[in-house]
Amino acid sequence: MTVDADWTTGEPRLFAQRCPEGHAWYLPRLRCPRCAAVVSTFEPSGCGIVFAQTSLHRRVAASGDPAGPKAKEAIGIALVDLDEGVRMMVRCVPGTPVGARVQVSIEFDEGSQRLLPFCAEVTA
Amino acid sequence: MISGVGLTPFSRDAGLGALDLQATAAYQALDDAGLLARDVDTVIAGYATTVNHIMPANVLAEYLGARPARAFGMSVGGATGLAMVAEAARLMRAGVATHVLVVGGENRASGQSRDQAIATLAQVGHASHEVVLGANIPAYYALLASEYLARFGLSRADLAPLAVQMRAHAVSHPGAQFRTPITVQDVLDAPPIAEPLGLLDCCPMSDGAAAVVVSRAPASPSGRASVRIAGLGQANLHQHVSEADFGAFGAGESSAAALAEAGTGVGELDILGVYDSFTITLAILLEEIGIVAPGTAGRRASEGLFAADGRYPLNLHGGLLSYGHSGVAGGMAHLVEMVTQLRGEAGARQLADLPRKGLLHADGGVLSAHVSVVLEGAPAEASRGDRA
Fold this sequence. Notes:
Largest sheet of chain B: 5 strands, mixed
Number of strands of chain A: 8
Structural class of chain B: alpha/beta
Number of helices of chain A: 0
Oligomer: heterodimer
Number of domains of chain A: 1
Strand order of the largest sheet of chain B: 1-7-4-2-3
CATH superfamily of chain B: Thiolase/Chalcone synthase
Shape of chain A: globular
Shape of chain B: globular
CATH architecture of chain B: 3-Layer(aba) Sandwich
Helix content of chain A: under 10%
Radius of gyration of chain A: 16 Å
Helix content of chain B: 25-40%
Structural class of chain A: mainly beta
Largest sheet of chain A: 5 strands, mixed, barrel
Number of helices of chain B: 13
Distance between the termini of chain B: 24 Å
């Protein structure tokens, strides 16, 4: 495990980045995309607001055999604006409304057999 | 100037491989220009997802018997076709090239499985932070649509007229993949793909090809209208939807540059060719370019603004939504149709008043790469007396 291991590499952690100038972003880089300053990685709280959401209808292997019969399922995908000022793409319950207050957490997804970020609505 | 154009019919299965499709369109464009392949000094070819060759222009040049000084491929998603034409025009301006052949085409629908194609195209997303979530192209655009509808307090029905208009245009083009008229209700009743987008909000995947010859001057006096590239603009402000500025994706910047270079404005345009991979794509692009006010593209479509007899005839071949989408060629079909209209050669589809000035706009990725081109038609000397 490296210091930067997060959900994308199998560690149940969510990372974002920022620079000393106060710029913050989500997609990982070696330098700040605005000022080229050296970055530091931080763990956002996961609290945020749904900016956009889709229920994606797709065909998946019904039995685990990629060449076998297909079944249909819907998954929710959302862009969430985290309180720390970064926007990230997550899984969500299909139909989660735009503007909903949510909490992002890292969970194991049976379908893809890996850790993914999921968001759940929180009551105010 | 644009001296030749070629466009194959788009379909689910053209019965040809990618290279044969590219060559079919290239021969059409060369014949149209009155040139042989060996007359071309530059060949530019777009990527083909079914071939994935690292030297697409060289392969095509050899096939055609061209021996160009310059041959190179390009890859900026759906914007590739217009981006290649923009580079061809710049080679002309620099005095470097005389005749440039620009080609895109592939058997996108028949040359791979539907799941393979969806997986390939999904790679415009971020590999480790977006694609792994199961997202794909319709999902990325559905996120745009979700935010758009929420921002303006609209519903799916407010985007549907754009799909209906594209289909209405395609009905009169024999090369279009879909030619059965549809209604707003049909669009609303279609199976959901990535909500709020349903099947008829999404372009199909097609086999097909398109080609353009850009020349410094005609190969020979043709006695026909000529079409000039009057303005170019481009913008590349992000790649991934996660980092897009939803207030300014880049189409405004790109089109403003092209219009400024042409010394014109949207009010002087007679015809439009705007990328329409999804209904939401068309709505956002038309609004950012400034053709219509934000949040109104669908309503203006339902009022007939983009019909053949409307103020802004748009994608008269049926666009990606109904003529079809064969990757790079899909974005070039708009250009071929506009050139045909500016020349007055569109037959049954020809606009009643010969258009003189048009704006083309294409995007690649998730509204990531933008290219705008202003075309101007000039009537041939022989026919000038016929015009007021």
